[in-house]
Amino acid sequence: MTDVEEATVxxxxxxxxxxxxxxxxxxxxxxxxxxxxxITAALTAWVHDSDVQTVLIDGAxxxxxxxxxxxxxxxxxxxxxxxxxxxxxxRAEYAMNALIAEYPKPIVVFADxxxxxxxxxLAGHAAxxxxxxxxxxxxxxxxxxxxxxxxxxWLLGRAPGRLGEYFGLTGQSMxxxxxxxxxxxxxFVPSENLGSxxxxxxxxxxxxxxxxxxxxxxxxxxxxxxxxxRAWIDEAFSADTVGEIAQRLRxxxxxxxxxxxxTLEELAPTALAVTLDAVREARRMSGVREALEGEYxxxxxxxxxxxxxxxxxxxxxxxxDRQPKWQPATIAELPDDAGRPAREYVPETPLF
Length: 352
What we know:
With about 350 residues, the protein is an alpha/beta fold. It has a single domain (about 5-345), classed as 2-enoyl-CoA Hydratase, Chain A, domain 1 (Alpha-Beta Complex). Helices cover about 50% and strands about 10% of the residues. The chain has 17 helices and nine strands. Helix 2 runs parallel beside helix 4 (about 85-100), helix 3 crosses helix 16 and helix 11 crosses helix 12 (about 240-250).
């Protein structure tokens, strides 16, 4: 195997197109610190490179763009009493997310297949965000006792109605059509056409912008079912607290409300409260960078002050017993201001 094949990030240019390919297909291209540093270095180098006009980010393999960050390493750091080291990873990742959001040249991302957690941080803030019939996007952090980050709260806070609260709290996945409706993606392109689009981005001069070029390959997907679900989701997830959301779901006669309630009752109550607070705070913010700062406070609070994060990773990824012991154990035990300590936490090391 050659050095190029062993690299976890492949960086090269095709004519005027700068190409970044995540290359850990067996891990669905999950991000580690080294990968983040390589992506950041490539993007930084191309800012002033006049030969590169557009950047494309995609993932190797058939399973997806990126399944998220390396949370097993996060678990190891916290349980070894080295929670302060988590700041290095998150500061690097969030700086990369901000760089993508503020990049002076168009960044195109193929969110083909699984694109979750850290993958949303790569895809969600790009100038041209492309999904396919294979796309499954999600911010599933509450399932490990955590909270959405990588600028995900910014996207969730701008979803129609209260769909941001719904997807943030439940961690449910979105289809490609859902992602376009929610504002997580711009175009739906069949996966079989991505190669042709890639070639066009690199070599065609007309039409003039990557967005216009993508429109040549854009197709209308099967309609999202989310508009039809808006009434019961908006009614339930507009409540002030997680407890009140659960109560409204309990009283709802919508067919899917019981399933949403069952999901919430399995998840970490504290993570639900922190996420609800985070999405609503981000809705009032002015940009991705500000949302990242809010997320960083919460992430560092979890790493230093709450056992639900390592417990959730243990139950899902280490012991895999799927029986986490949350503190508190139930939504009913949550205080009304359960999201406040994480919001007000001041990390020792600033983000930016």
